[in-house]
Amino acid sequence: MRTAAVVGTGLIGTSVALALAGKGVRVHLMDVDESAARTAAALGAGTVGPPPAPVDMALLAVPPAGVGEVLAVQQAGRLAHSYMDVASVKAGPERDACALAEPSTYIGGHPMAGRELSGPLAATATLFEGRSWVLTPTAATTTATLNRALEVVALCGAVPVVMDSAAHDRAVALVSHTPHVVAALMAARLQHLPDDAARLAGQGLRDVIRIAGGDANLWRDILDANAAAVADVLSELARDLSVAVTALRGLATDNADERAEGMMHVADLLSRGIKGRGRVPGKHGGTPRNGVPVRVLIGDQPGELARLLGTVAELGVNVEEVAIDHAPADRSGLVELLVGPASSVRLAQRLADHGWTVHQTPPVAPGTPEPALSAPETVIRGS
């Protein structure tokens, strides 16, 4: 692939453009908001404006409801030899594409990656590395278009997954769209959070509500496009919530039978939650990995996190996840590095040797819950 166009320079479109440009592809950036396209170009994502001749592939990073119309317009202008949208729902855009445009040069796509931030300034060339990228070819999609889409996925470092569009929409309703609604519902409970309660908020709450910070207009469009499938999942969740409420009410009474039944339902819910969590693949699409948190105290001055991660990289230790617990009233933060059990002790000691104050949590047996921030720790203070 030598040339590409990206129509829509938000988070996903600009991230695709950055990844392709970084692999030597000439990328042309187009957006109704030209300032967004200029921002993406300033980041190194490509050049602003349409190409002089049809490109190999055009990426349509537009809302789901606009895919068919944008595809038809760009096909009429001979923007590209093949077209792929990156909307987070697929059945509706596919129907519109087949009705309004030429379906043979079109393929649906959905990179399973994102951030709670939006816009080109939030984009990164590594956003898709190791992530699944769904492709939903139609019966009319040509082999050449499928191959170009597969090349885009490979250049972005993602893993292709071919699915039927309706099956995709049912799947993302469960693994992506409903979680956003639940995060928003939980975050909405915090609008009038008292100051004393806010001081108690820890990483668990931040994990639950993190994605609730996503662009409201974007998510309105997503939920509108996949409303029925999300409603089905929420209905199932509502039934579980009703059982949980009844069970907890029972635990709050003095009636022994109600307490016993309530405890049974609560235990069942927690057990099913553990099993469900175990179904989610870990980093790079593999099975969930057991990690040990190594927590490092850092100052609030600029560059401290980068300096810590640079030290870890120099030590050659693979970090599965990074989380930061920062108290607004404090001028320090606790960075949690999730590493393999075999690496945790060595990393903790070597970070201490480099002057960091480390809170090391003892390794846990496979299958047991991860330690909370309040779990017993060994504090190793750097010199």
UniProtKB/TrEMBL annotation:
Residues 2-282 form the Prephenate/arogenate dehydrogenase domain. Gene3D superfamilies: 6-phosphogluconate dehydrogenase C-terminal like domain, NAD(P)-binding Rossmann-like Domain. Keywords: Oxidoreductase. It is an enzyme of class 1 (oxidoreductase). SUPFAM superfamilies: 6-phosphogluconate dehydrogenase C-terminal domain-like (SSF48179), NAD(P)-binding Rossmann-fold domains (SSF51735). The keyword Lipid metabolism does not apply. The keyword Oxidoreductase applies. Its EC number is 1.3.1.12. It holds the Pfam family PDH_N. PROSITE patterns: PDH_ADH. Residues 360-383 are annotated as: Disordered. GO terms for molecular function: prephenate dehydrogenase (NAD+) activity. PANTHER family: PREPHENATE DEHYDROGENASE, PREPHENATE DEHYDROGENASE [NADP(+)]. Belongs to the prephenate/arogenate dehydrogenase family. This is Prephenate dehydrogenase. It comes from Streptomyces nogalater.
